[in-house]
Amino acid sequence: MRALANETFTPARPWVTGNLQTVADRIRPASHDLAAVATEQRHLIPLDDGTGDALAVRLHRPRLAPRADRPIVLVVHGMGGTIDSTYVRATALGLLRAGYAVARVDLRGAGESIEHTTTLYHGGRTADLRAVVRGLADEPGSEGVAVVGFSLGGNVTLKLLGEPHEGLPIVAGASVCAPLDLAAGVDQIRRRVFGLYERFFVHRLRQDTLASGLVLTAAEQATLAQVASIVAFDDLITAKHNGWRDAAEYYAVNSSAQFLPRIAVPTLVVHALDDPMIPASSYAAVDWAALERDTPVRRAITPHGGHVGFHEAGAELPWYVGRIRRFLDGVGPHRR
Fold it and tell me: Pairing between strand 170-176 and 267-272?
């Protein structure tokens, strides 16, 4: 399994295990002040699926030394996250310092988008990212859009990158700790640390659902109050309200591993083998030799780092921030 790892980093003490790397941001959260390095514009991007929903987006431009030949980087949060999640702000800060414009989006039913949406995000809702990319495409100075997604947002990102882009100016992408196999990821979350991770996510999912504009029947509301697993939530809410038979069908249709061979733009897949929420077997199942020979997909897999942790010794920002920046720098000047 360790043969999968092709890069390394040194964990900061005391965050030396996968679980500690994973929870470090909650134990000692960092604010990552974006206002000090960037200007901000707020956008509300309408979705054209007949729901009347819209997504809240914050677009930041670096105050000093903006790079005119760089894409706007769209950062996508994961399950239970928002644009203010520590990993989103850390990524935005690092890229803004490097001269990139950065857009942060709250997905349906999350953060600032809650009051503008009547439906919820899920692991395959790529149409929403298409709408945001389309909205960013005409921003002054834009040389395309690079999409960077975390955890479940990473799954959506990789699925998007492997789908036809229909003329959208998507020029690159990256994922950090994407599940690749949604069913395997959910099962891993259920089994680790006595179910603590799952209870956390179920609580957040229930909260976000009740705070959203999603219309639930009385029976659904009663069942939601009793939901104790992510699979049960996806059976009740995600699958039922999006036209799938059950959670299993939702997972099968939207797992991003099947989209990797179809990706045609430079893409970096970042992961840690000690991620407590995603089994390493999901990454071992990928034929990386063939993928890196036949597509522009590249991996940055480390033995350690936890789930969206990568807290590095002596570093202000997580290791993945610099790794993504170097990858985007190496993609070269972008032209539509």
Answer: parallel
The dihedral through the CA atoms of 254, 165, 113, 101 has a sign that is: positive
Q: Is the pTM of this model over 0.85?
A: yes
Beta strand 267-272 pairing with 297-302: parallel
Domain ranges of the chain: 2-182+255-331
Residue pLDDT, tens place only, 269-284: 999 999 999 999 999 9
Is pLDDT at 196 greater than 80 in this prediction?
yes
- What is the per-residue DSSP string for 129-169? HHHHHHHHHTSTT---EEEEEETHHHHHHHHHHTS--TT--
Q: Are 108 and 138 in contact (CB under 8 A)?
A: no
The top-level CATH class assigned to 2-182+255-331 is alpha beta
Q: What is the pLDDT of residues 12-31, one digit of tens each?
A: 999 999 999 999 998 988 88
User: Which residues 6+ apart lie within 8 Å of 131 measured at CB?
Assistant: 45, 46, 47, 48, 55
Mean pLDDT on 122-139: 95
d(CA 86, CA 82): 9
**Closest by alpha carbon to 150, among 173, 117, 116?**
173
